Amino acid sequence: MNTLPTTVVGDAYTSSHHWNLLCNLVDLDNRMAGQQGEVEGAELVGEAFEKHGLRNASITEFEIPGWWRGSSSLTVEHDRTHEFDAQHETVALPGTPSGDVTAELVDVGDGLPADFEERDVEGKLVMASSLTPDDYGRWIHRAEKYGAAVRGGAVGFLFRNHLDGNLPPTGSIGNENGPGDIPAVGVSREVGHRLVRYCEDGETTARLTVDCRNEPTNSRNIEAVIGPDTDEEVLVTAHVDAHDVGEGANDNGVGTVLVAEIGRLLAEMEDELETMVRCLVFGAEEVGLYGAYHWAETRDTGSVKCIFNMDGAGYSRTADVHTHGFGAIGEAFEEVRDELGVPVEINTGIRPHSDHWPFVQKGVAGAQARSIADDSGRGWGHTHGDTLDKLDRRDLRDLAVVFTAGVVKLAEEDRKIEPKSVAEIREATVEQGFEEGMRNSGSWPFEDGEIDADEKTDASAETTAEGDR
């Protein structure tokens, strides 16, 4: 079993490389997919790879459905006219079309399937909470609630935050080929509470206006390698893009800079690596996992021993690794936990969101690495509050050690990490309750009908899912 040299651990605990890069990323105007800030962010990552001694650094462009924010407003008639058009009162959801609609405002509570079945939303402006009740059994994605409103004939959609702080939530609701069907905005819990009260008082008319631009643009993947030139490779990944309403510090600036830091630390022990490691930062995750899908569909995934993807790692220094049932990945991090004497949570369940999913859905071994705290739900993510001041550089140092130690073990030549069949991944996705929600949100990636249980992943397999936004 390989362990990190004490010199590498010491370097990691005194490093400011990741924090300095994170400061540079959050200081960009915004890193929205396909926009100038994402371009500049990609260049910063590429420069860091080269500075840290990684080989063959490159940036690859690919086309995506682009979206640019304009203005949005909500006007409600309740006893008198109430206008919600100040900054941060309404935030258009990426992928929304422009629109100007006036209709009755209807609140569907948590936006569960039963909530839509019980309400007539045709021709209405529909509002749903971002909350999924703890006892419901599965998470209801924003896109599923939006899709239910569209299928019910709604003319507009309001997504109200369930967390305090006057923070309207954002998040993509577009589809694979371009904008969604009806205009959509996020509103804060506080504004949402007020609107719910109006709806409870009686029929309430509202006007929603959204001005935005939808047109094709290009995003970018950034990659470089470290270690021996082997047939197999371990992918260490994150995404550089972020929603334009905040700084994208945690989501996913932290993941991005940890990829660069892991590469830097591995360069110090390159001769000890037994399998090539590819540091790979994707673009356009927030609007449909486009960068990850582009890589998985244009490269030989048969050479990927496993993918280790970091997303949502800025909550604390306690690592949380989701293995998707690939036991060998869990065993590697159990060893890290025991050797370092630090807490590492290991979960075996499916997480069909973020940049590991285009690989895992094909049967490629993969994990998502996060960090957890008592209040580490979505938290500040996808809001104006996702800013650098919420983070602690000491957390990055601890996580860099844990994750680098894990990657070294995943790269061990004699550590076998077997892929799964597509049928096995599909079965686990169904058994863990994700099928209904993914079908409802248009992100179900599997073919209907029988799949041979012995069928293994194929780099040319067609994929249709959009994934998380």
TrEMBL record:
Top-level division of the source organism's lineage: Archaea
Region (Disordered), start-end ranges: 428-469
Main location: endoplasmic reticulum
InterPro entries registered for this protein in UniProt: CPQ (IPR039866), PA_dom_sf (IPR046450), PA_domain (IPR003137), Peptidase_M28 (IPR007484)
Cell location: Endoplasmic reticulum; Golgi apparatus; Lysosome; Secreted
Membrane-spanning segments: none
A cellular component annotation (GO) from this entry: lysosome
CDD domains the UniProt entry points to: PA_2
Protein name per Swiss-Prot or TrEMBL: Carboxypeptidase Q
